[in-house]
């Protein structure tokens, strides 16, 4: 049978090093118990690798993140098997904790946004404490942020933009799976092109850290899908005829001179056109001969 030990993994900072603690709740009716704590990590999908095992009288077990057997980016689990000291050959059923991801997480893990100018909050979370031996006054993790556009037909023009090029994670008491957190805003670029839905990746890389635990670690990218939206078009053509963005307004302007064709009421944007005589001998006709956009 099972003892309902309910093992749970929590992170702790001990003597300047990051540890994971597996805690379980022994039943009070069975005081003379011992426990076998087995630590394992997910080495590949569906496969686990044993990294540590110990037999203890305590209702907890520790493992240190040494960047060799246990690294940032690993998903770790703890399996506890109890047995009575008087009958060590008889074990209760082993009980396994939920997987604990040790490293940097983005919330949400992926984004689906549209070319509508709206900002979307992306939270960067460290699930483990940040250790800075000898650097108590400036203890933090700096993450350099970058984006990569996959399959964009506009070379050099990003599909997404960020509110910051880097974020800083400063230590905080670990609570509800977070030991440090920061936010960055993500916005889809309105490119006025019918280029279909696009996929971009947001990448974060720790910089300026000399310790082995962080310097060899790169968090998992965030997938950002940008939904393409149709864009309005306005026209000024021939002598000149003007059609507005909604397609309903149609005007003629046969005059010669420089005119304000379009101005935004919500941002600094306007277009000027210059019209010059291009008509015949019978009637004066104006044509576009220059354009300037701010």
TrEMBL record:
InterPro entries: Dev_Signal_Modulators, Ig_VWDE, VWF_type-D. Residues 232-294 form the VWFD domain. The lineage of its organism: Eukaryota, Metazoa, Chordata, Craniata, Vertebrata. The keyword Nucleotide-binding does not apply. GO terms for molecular function: signaling receptor binding. This is VWDE protein. Keywords: Disulfide bond, Signal. GO terms for cellular component: cell surface; extracellular region. Transmembrane segments: none annotated. The keyword Signal applies.
């Amino acid at each position: 049978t099972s003892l309902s030990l309910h093992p749970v993994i929590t992170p702790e900072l001990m003597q300047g090093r990051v540890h994971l603690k597996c805690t379980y709740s022994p039943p009070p009716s069975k005081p003379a118990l011992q426990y076998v704590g087995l630590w394992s990590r997910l080495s590949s999908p569906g496969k686990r690798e044993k990294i540590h095992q110990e037999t203890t009288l305590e209702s907890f077990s520790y493992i240190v993140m040494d960047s060799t057997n246990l690294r940032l980016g690993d998903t770790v689990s703890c399996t506890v098997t109890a047995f009575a000291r008087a009958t060590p050959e008889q074990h209760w059923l082993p009980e396994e904790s939920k997987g604990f991801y040790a490293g940097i997480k983005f919330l949400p893990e992926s984004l689906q946004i549209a070319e509508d100018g709206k900002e979307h909050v992306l939270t960067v979370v460290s699930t483990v404490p940040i250790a800075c031996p000898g650097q108590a006054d400036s203890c933090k993790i700096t993450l350099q942020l970058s984006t990569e556009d996959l399959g964009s037909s506009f070379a050099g023009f990003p599909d997404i933009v960020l509110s910051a090029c880097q974020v800083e994670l400063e230590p905080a008491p670990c609570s509800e799976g977070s030991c440090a957190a920061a936010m960055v805003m993500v916005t889809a670029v309105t490119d006025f092109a019918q280029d279909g839905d696009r996929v971009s990746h947001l990448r974060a890389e720790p910089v300026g850290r000399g310790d082995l635990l962080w310097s060899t670690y790169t968090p998992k990218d965030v997938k950002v899908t940008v939904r393409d939206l149709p864009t309005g078009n306005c026209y000024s053509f021939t002598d000149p005829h003007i059609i507005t963005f909604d397609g309903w307004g149609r005007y003629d302007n046969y005059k010669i001179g420089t005119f304000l064709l379009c101005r935004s009421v919500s941002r600094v944007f306007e277009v000027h056109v210059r019209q010059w005589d291009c008509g015949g001998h019978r009637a004066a006709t104006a044509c576009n001969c220059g354009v300037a956009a701010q």
